[in-house]
């Protein structure tokens, strides 16, 4: 009955979670990455929104997770260009 979520739907949700600025919201946003990857709906905007969610927490953990996701995105982009 409802349309299937697409990359824009996920990016919007991630952006809203990023505005919360807390670790719980950032963690929730990141928890959706495996589901998106399986559906092949992940892309740079999705990662950027989740990286922003972690960065907005202002914590060491947020900085570490942001960096790890950025590296993961770089590896996936390298695989896609082969």
Description of the structure:
- This protein has 82 residues and is mostly helical.
- The chain has one domain.
- The chain is built from 5 helices and no strands.
- Helix 1 runs antiparallel to helix 2 (23-31) and helix 2 runs antiparallel to helix 4 (44-55).
- The longest helix has 21 residues, at 60-80.
- The model has no long low-confidence stretch (mean pLDDT 81).
Key features of this structure:
mainly alpha, 82 residues
What letter string, H or E per element, gives the SSE order? HHHHH
Give the class from helix and strand content and strand pairing: mainly alpha
The low-confidence parts are none
How far apart the termini lie comes to 38 Å
**How many strand elements?**
0
Total helical segments: 5
**Percent range of helical residues:** over 70%
Mean of pLDDT: 81
**For this entry, what is the oligomeric state of its chains?**
single chain
Shape: globular
Integer count of domains:
1
Radius of gyration: 13 Å
Biggest pleated sheet: none
What percentage of the residues does DSSP assign to strands (E)? under 5%
In short:
This protein has helices at 7-20, 23-31, 33-38, 44-55, 60-80.
What layout of secondary structure does this protein have?
Elements (H helix, E strand, L loop, with lengths): L6 H14 L2 H9 L1 H6 L5 H12 L4 H21 L2
């Amino acid at each position: 009955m409802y349309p299937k979520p697409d990359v824009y739907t996920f990016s919007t949700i991630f952006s809203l979670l990023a505005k919360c600025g807390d670790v719980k919201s950032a963690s929730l946003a990141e928890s959706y990455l495996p589901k998106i990857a399986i559906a092949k709906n992940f892309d740079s905007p999705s990662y950027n929104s989740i990286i922003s969610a972690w960065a907005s927490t202002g914590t060491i953990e947020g900085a570490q997770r942001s960096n790890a996701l950025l590296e993961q995105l770089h590896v996936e982009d390298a695989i896609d260009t082969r």
